[in-house]
Write a structure and sequence with these properties.
Radius of gyration: 41 Å
CATH class of one domain: Alpha Beta
Shape: elongated
Distance between the termini: 133 Å
Strand content: 5-15%
Largest sheet: 8 strands, mixed
Structural class: alpha/beta
CATH superfamily of one domain: ABC-type transport auxiliary lipoprotein component
CATH topology of one domain: Rossmann fold
């Protein structure tokens, strides 16, 4: 029975000892004084128990100080009996366990043995639950001098009372989340007892809570010098270093932490998440790769790994120049960026295959985007079609599917997918503008104009932004390509919109310029017929060009005056040709 209760007590207390501090209950104090649980000094050889019992009883009477008071032997024995123990059973292990149950912050224990006809004893005070020890200088004295031994132990205790007190106050303030008080008491405790890991840890954590990360990390470094393999210190140091953008140092701490916890997938995922949140996607991936060595098919690992690989690809892509392919269509990806995109696709595919509609639709979208970056629209289409079976009401997947179809040259499917996305989400950003661009790319001008007007009615973008789609295409693919009719149709469509005065002036300028160029190309025969045909063009061009003066004033390089002068000359020439022909 006693062994079973002891095992339960030990298991309970080991959980408590894993915590940095436990708030002290009210019964841990007598009035304003902290209680001390004194165990009997125990013999390590065949020496009688009498010396230990008498010394400890004497010490209990002596510890009656302004700040501390010892629990009487009767009360201590009564408390021990609650756990099927006796005061005489307590040693340095079980006395700490009992003190934790009683919320008593300090114990005294020790051992002795016979040496050259005398007693040599070693005693120590231990904080609970942190387990920090304050040793008493060993003594060798006759067995009957137990009073002297007790006074010697008390004298040692009195010299450490201030240290123990500040450590205790430090812990109390820290547990109460009273950061101002914790900084005051923990700083003093560390000054008094630099080797106190208990106080230094509380101070480091308090500084972390108050976002004084630099000072916090310095203390964690000191702690790790003393205990380089502490998982608790390594994990906290890693987090603080990450906040300071000390990426390599944070990664080192986290790696060492996980070397000691290699099978803990949830901790690995959390630590990787902390690194990724600081922007270190590569560090997060490295930690997860080590997890694959333990469990290569773990879907949770693949889920985060694929997401971080995708983010890392985008981050790296933003820093790498893109080389144009020879055909000039799609920029060539940096090989490392491309590899990261493929890595993301592979891991996210594991998740999608395993969880399907139970996964996140964003994984489908990100994988499709990765395929598009790799210039593999057909793969993106295949995945998008699977994605719509898992998430039929997800507009973003359909929107991405439209992009992939358009890249593959499937304009009708692109429009169909985007229209389906709009049915699900009528406010899908820039959807109608994109649809109009799809139509423009295959010269379906009427449908493009109709869609732009629908986008304007829906308030999808400002009229100027939407008009800019038509204006840009009309100039680059119309006027500059010699298709003046198409350019003019688009410019007229823009002016039918509720665009700003500045944008209307710009459109008028290009409208007039398109008519000027069209007339200049058609007047070349300089016959009566060509003059009769082009004279109205030049005359209309002149009107639009003059309406474009506001744009020209803001863009001196437009050469408006020279174009107007040339237009007037062409008008005079056409008029002369017509008059001469009528004679």
């Amino acid at each position: 029975m006693i062994q079973r209760v002891k095992a339960t007590l030990i298991a309970t207390v080991m959980v408590l000892l894993a915590l940095p501090f436990i708030p002290q209950a009210a019964d841990a104090q007598e009035g304003s004084r902290f209680r001390v649980l004194v165990a009997n000094l125990t013999p390590t050889d065949g020496t009688r128990d009498r010396f230990g019992e008498r010394t400890s009883n004497e010490l209990r009477d002596l510890i009656d100080l302004p700040t501390h008071v010892a629990i009487s032997s009767r009360d201590a024995d009564r408390a021990a009996r609650d756990y099927d123990l006796r005061l005489s059973d307590l040693d340095c292990v079980t006395v700490q366990q009992l003190a934790s149950q009683l919320s008593v912050p300090l114990v005294m224990c020790g051992e002795y043995h016979e040496e050259d006809g005398q007693i040599r004893y070693e005693a120590r005070f231990i904080t609970v639950p942190a387990g920090e020890e304050f040793p008493v200088e060993p003594q060798l004295l006759p067995e009957r001098q137990h009073e002297e031994a007790a006074r010697h132990i008390l004298a040692s205790f009195e010299t450490t009372v201030e240290q123990v007190q500040y450590i205790s106050w430090c812990g109390s303030e820290y547990n109460a989340s009273n950061w101002e008080g914790a900084i005051e008491y923990c700083t003093r405790a560390v000054e008094l007892v630099p080797e106190s890991n208990e106080a230094r840890f509380a101070l480091a954590r308090t500084l972390m809570e108050t976002e004084d990360y630099g000072e916090s990390l310095d203390h964690f470094r000191r702690l790790l010098e003393a205990e380089p393999n502490s998982s608790q210190y390594l994990e906290n140091a890693g987090w603080v270093a990450a906040q300071l953008d000390e990426v390599d140092e944070a990664r080192d701490y986290y790696t060492r932490f996980l070397e000691r916890n290699p099978d803990n997938v949830q901790v690995r995922l959390r630590v990787a998440y902390d690194l990724a949140q600081t922007g270190d996607s590569f560090g997060a991936m490295s930690l997860l790769e080590e997890g694959f060595e333990q469990d290569p098919n773990n879907v949770d690992l693949h889920e985060q790994y694929g997401s971080y690989a995708f983010r890392a690809a985008l981050d790296l892509q933003s820093t790498r120049p893109q080389a144009q392919q020879q055909d000039g269509d799609q920029p060539a990806l940096d090989p490392e960026v491309a590899e990261l995109f493929r890595t993301a696709i592979a891991s996210l595919d594991v998740v999608l295959e395993e969880r399907g509609g139970e996964s996140r639709p964003q994984y489908v979208v990100n994988s499709m985007r990765a395929f598009m970056q790799l210039d593999e629209p057909e793969e993106a289409i295949s995945l998008g079609e699977r994605g719509t079976t898992w998430f039929p009401e997800n507009a973003e997947i359909l929107s991405q599917l439209a992009t992939a179809h358009n890249r593959a040259g499937n304009v009708d499917q692109a429009v169909e997918s985007l229209a389906a996305a709009l049915e699900i989400n009528p406010n899908l950003p820039n959807a109608r503008g994109r649809m109009a661009s799809y139509y423009l790319e295959v010269d379906r001008i009427d449908e493009a104009v109709e869609t732009i007007h629908a986008a304007e009615a829906a308030g999808e973008q400002s009229p100027d932004a939407l008009g800019g789609i038509l204006l840009s295409h009309g100039f680059s693919q119309g006027v500059q390509a010699g298709d003046y009719e198409m350019g003019i149709r688009l410019f007229e469509a823009v002016k039918a919109m509720d665009v700003s005065d500045e944008f209307r002036s710009q459109t008028n300028f290009f409208h007039g310029y398109a008519l000027y160029e069209q007339g200049r190309a058609l007047q070349e025969p300089q016959t009566v017929e060509s003059a009769q045909r082009t004279l109205p063009m030049f005359q209309e061009a002149l009107v639009h060009l003059r309406d474009g003066e506001l744009y020209a004033q803001q863009n001196p390089g437009s050469n408006l005056n020279q174009i107007i002068e040339a237009t007037n000359q062409f008008i005079e020439i056409q008029d002369a040709i017509i008059r001469r022909g009528s004679r």
